[in-house]
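User: I've been trying to design a sequence by hand for this structure and keep getting stuck. Would you show me what you'd pick, starting by listing the structure so we're on the same page?

Assistant: Good idea, let's start from the same input. This is the structure you sent:
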């Protein structure tokens, strides 16, 4: 009986971790001082033979200085728009450490998430975000570390990565590729069959809406492994900037 309970607890912990983080958006670094934005994000996970899970998110962002961007947003989870539950409150901060003095830009990214369920505690994500350009091609590469605390199920610090290539064809339509992965504990990666690696095509663009107002969008479709299981993901992000 004890072994059965332990196995059930382990499975629940793994499921909770898998549902918490595989829909990340690529963090990019740029100067947007004085800009305010209403930010809508929507992403999904679909495993073969299982119902789709969706995560809508809504937030407000602000470029405090030429180096510092901050955003507060709420994340919801459910099997459909009519069956959503509040999942986390999030506070994201990105701080530019360089501004053009090198061939690349470097930022420090952080995101503090407070679970709606108090037993799940807090999660802190922290790490460097890199960006460079080669002609019209923009390249991004990020490595983040995530740690849960004040949680019923504490876990070791996890390591993740993000990458993106984007070809700047026209302001209204840019295209490229995105990739994400979760490797497991930062100092002892999980076995390959328990890791996550997924990638796919992405579209981007910005549409002027009047004086100092813009709609920015990005959408991607990813496929690959999500904690050792094959799955597909769709993500959409719309920002009204003013």
């Amino acid at each position: 009986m004890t072994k059965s309970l332990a196995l059930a607890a382990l499975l629940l912990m793994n499921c909770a971790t898998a549902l918490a983080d595989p829909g990340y958006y690529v963090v990019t670094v740029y100067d947007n001082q004085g800009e305010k934005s209403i930010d809508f994000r929507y992403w999904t996970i679909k495993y073969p033979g299982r119902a789709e899970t969706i995560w809508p998110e809504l937030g407000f962002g602000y470029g405090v200085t030429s180096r510092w961007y901050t955003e507060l947003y709420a994340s919801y989870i459910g099997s459909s728009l009519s069956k959503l539950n509040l999942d986390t409150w999030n506070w994201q901060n990105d701080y530019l450490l360089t501004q053009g003095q090198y061939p690349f830009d470097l930022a420090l990214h952080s995101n503090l998430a407070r679970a709606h369920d108090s037993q799940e505690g807090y999660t802190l994500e922290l790490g460097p975000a890199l960006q460079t350009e080669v002609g019209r091609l923009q390249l991004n590469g990020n490595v983040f570390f995530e740690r849960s605390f004040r949680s019923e199920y504490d876990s070791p610090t996890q390591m993740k990565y993000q990458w993106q290539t984007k070809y700047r064809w026209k302001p209204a339509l840019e295209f490229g590729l995105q990739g994400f992965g979760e490797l497991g504990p930062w100092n002892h990666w999980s076995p390959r069959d328990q890791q996550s690696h997924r990638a796919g095509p992405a579209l981007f663009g910005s549409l002027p809406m009047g004086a100092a107002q813009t709609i920015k969008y990005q959408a991607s479709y990813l496929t690959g492994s999500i904690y050792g299981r094959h799955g597909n993901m769709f993500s959409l992000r719309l920002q009204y900037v003013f």
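That's my pick for every position. To get oriented when you compare it with your attempt: Confidence is low (pLDDT under 50) at residues 1-20. The domain at 2-241 is CATH 2.40.160.40 (Porin).
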